[in-house]
Amino acid sequence: MNARGLVAAALTAMAIVMTSTPSFGQAAGPSVPVQGQVLSRNINGPVPGLTVFLVHEFLGRSAPSYTDAYGRFGWTAIPVRSEPYFLEIYWGQNLVYRQPVAVTAPVSLPAIQL
Amino acid sequence: MTVFEVVALIAAFCGFAMVLGGIWLMAKGVITLAATPKTDALTIEWKKQFRMNTQVPGLAFFMVGLLFVWVALRSLHPADIVPIEFEGTIKGVEEPVSILVRPHAWELPSTTSGEITGKIYPDLSVLVLVVNAPGYQPYSKLIKLKADGPRLAQLGTLELHRNVRESDLSKSITDLPFNAPAPAKSENAAFGVAQ
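The joint structure predicted for all components is written out below.
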């Protein structure tokens, strides 16, 4: 193979890799909404202003969602995966809650009592 | 394609046409690049910073043509990004505060065919500010910036109202069976769109 052939083969290989390999963090397949609510047992009411993440072993960490005035949080476009996610809730920088969550279909979590 | 882009492309085309036309006219012998005596040389001078001397004034055709091309390409260059400054104070919050700023809704034209076609001209003159602090009612505010003048958003004093204290909560934490990246900002998120 001459030099021109080598260059053409290298460019073809690069094009195949660039078009077939998903970039980091992208997940193929369907995605669903996930939503929930955080309540306080002590005050018997919603907890606003908390930072909530979904963490996945292979996908990494989701965009942060913040609980609203009613303690509600949620995301759209969470990839459906067979491995469980972990739902993390932070009070500022302090972790106050972490539990596994299965995301195989749209998820509406039961109210989380803290 | 906007009118501005059309005008810029026409200007670029005219520039190339002038250069090609100059070459064609030279080939036909209508203009020549024959050198003139040194005493008749054309001199262009500007504020002692720029001085050009040529004995071949026909080159000016090429210079004008290239000037058209340069101006057209220059005008197509996107404008520099001007930062938006924010000034204000948050009153009476003892917890770490996260402040999110996002543009107001940019809407594509509605469609009934199922196809998405449209163009958005990013408009940062209307912004939404959302202030979150754990245990406090979220605070949101619409900010309108002037089209001209300094890009400064005067927020004034923002007052948040506390609902819950950290001591009101009980923790429930299981171990993570794998290593996960530390909590990060929205732009570093790997997946999901927060509602």
